[in-house]
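Write out a record, focusing on structure:
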Amino acid sequence: MRSPHDPHENDPSAIWDEEHVKALLGLRRHPTRLVYAEPWRAWLEERGGTKQVIERLQSIPLASSQKQLLDLLLAHPEASTLFYASKLHVSHSRYFVHLNDLVKMLATGLNGWEVEQSRDSHVPPTNTSTRLRQSVHRLPAPLTSLVGAEESMGTVVAILKRPGARLLTLTGPGGVGKTRLAIAAGERLRNNFRDGVFFIPLEAVNDPTFLAAQIAHFLNIETDGMQSLIDALKNYLRDRQILLILDNFEQLIPGGGLVTELLETAPGLKTLVTSREALNLYGENRFDVPELPHPDPDHLPPLEQLGAWPAIDLFVQRVQARHPAFALTDANKEAIAGICNRLDGLPLAIELAAAQVKLLPSDQALPRLERGLKSLRDMARDRPPHQKTLWDAIDWSYQLLPAPEQALFRRLAVFGREWSLDAARAVCETEEMENLLEKLVDKSLARFTSVGVDGELRCQMLQAVREYALERLSDSGETEETQRRHAQYYLDMALEAEPHIGAPDQQHWMRRIEQERENLHIALQWMLDAGKIEMADDLLGAAWRFYHMLNIWSETLLWMDRALAQGTHRKSAGRVKAIWGAYWLAVRQDDHSQSLALAEDGLHLARELGDRRLIGLLLECLADEFCYRKEYDQAIQTFQDGLIIFQELGDREEAAWTLVHLATLFSQSGDLAKSREIFEESLSIFRAIGNDWAVEQVLRDLAILLLRQGDLEYVKTVLEESLRLSEKLGKRMGIGWTLNLQGQLALRQLDLGTARKLFLEAQAIFEKLGDQNSLFYNRKYLEQLERAE
């Protein structure tokens, strides 16, 4: 219910109350369907939809604690209240106090925005308390405050505000706080970049070949397959004002040329890079992130001044997060200063040390901790001094772990940026895994980060900690076996997902594949490096259609090329499926010389294996090549041969796809009636098996045919259904093309105003996707519209 003190209570436009704000945020027990009812749905649609409004919520002025909670809710939707409370380091009941305060502020901000907009729809609001930001930002939500880096922050922000400073690299050893400083600087600079600030994690990318794919993935760029991913990036960035934060670049230094290429193309682009070494590129600005200032243990200032030293402040804050009664006193100040000095003021090392403070009186706990740090073994004499300090701090924490925790810690290093609890159970083979993981989290050696697609907590290690854990894994002799289990787990996941393609739960499995993208690629890298080509073929053969639906084409082709090149003499069903996938991806790239060779090789191998389903799939590919060459008689016969196989096998989905290809062929050859009949037959099959993804695509194909036939009433109905499905499935390319087709329909009906609106909406989507081919065709219709006007 609305608060009795709500200033908008008597305003009919003030629709946001506690229940609907919580539904907008996606909190448990507050279903999002509440905001799909009127008047909330219309309110959201006027402002660009639910996603846009949620992304802009963060511009509402909030207290720091409220801002921290909002970031947490948006970063981890559907998490439990216990999860939120633990991340905020507050009690369960205190969490609800914070939540209620936040919800009231958001309701006031949202309702205030509506009131202000309604006063004068032609004048943009200038009151910052109610204006919602127009740009989209993708920055992680830190769960702790930035301590002691105000001066560094000011320097970084000032450099990036200079007109001529396009590339800034933050350098320094692991654990000095480069990533945390970059995120905070990005947060501070939000309003300086009209089109957004984007954080691109690179720690799981070891090959510069995949740098463009990683950037495109986090910018949510899709291509039409007719252009390279680098060209798509350039086209997307060309006219935008964007800050890219490229985090952990040190293993990709040879790929620095791409950064220069993008900067030269896009005058509004700036990049903030974190790396242990400079990129050494023309125009590069450098800032060496300093360690936190700390006092000389032999000349300590008075107690009232000691807490102002950033290293001391960080240590005390991190201990207080676990033990609220802890305080800096005359009794413990020398021990704390000694610890910070021993750790050279490195933030991560200090946090690790603070995590070791037990529930003991400080006169017992801290001297024990200080003695432990002084007795660290010199494990890596060849490392730079600050890096060795961090290494020693992690090593000291590791040596204090019981053997089962040590085993789990080092085995977790095989994962990418994040992993699920289920994956950790399977790969690490450690008893009481959840209990041991919680202990590692308590000691700052791992952390809970988000809730995954299946509602299970996901975890990660900081990169510096993971590097140490990988070395301990190598020393233990467990690397090969642990990596094998990791690869097998993700291969099994891909094989389990494959039968769900075309099923009603396809969307769920597609989100799982996307969520595990980095781990799947780590598994592929190990398979190819270890010569396990059959495993790589099986994984790619099972997963490529999910990658296709996710529009990850160029990157997937790179993996396909490597796997197929390494296993030229292998004969397996997995290899045929990988060739089948490589064929369709080559078609997306408009490389028909390559695609024809793949179709022929795949069909030859499928016949050698005697696998009828695979023969049918490759016949479909070969028939498609005949179509491309306008050899229609051969194409029809080949499609029909494949169709007979699928019908005999009872494979309704592949039979329906073959019908789609046949319908397209008849349309190209001018037999529109036959084409329409076959399109509708394929639609009925896809509807029956619940494949909404295919239904949406075939509806658009049918709409194109109906426009040619002039059946304008039916095409309107078809396009309305296509748009609903595209929005439901999140198919932005589908939304864009459906809007374009609706514009064509309006143009046919001489509704020129509606046509212009639809073409412009489609153009905005294609520009966002960096899809030059679609933009070209859409502009042709805009030109046709201008002639009609």
About this structure: The beta strands are 167-171, 197-201, 242-247, 269-275, 284-288, 419-420, 447-451, 457-460. The chain has a mean pLDDT of 82. The chain has 37 helices and eight strands. Residues 92-119 form the longest helix (28 residues).
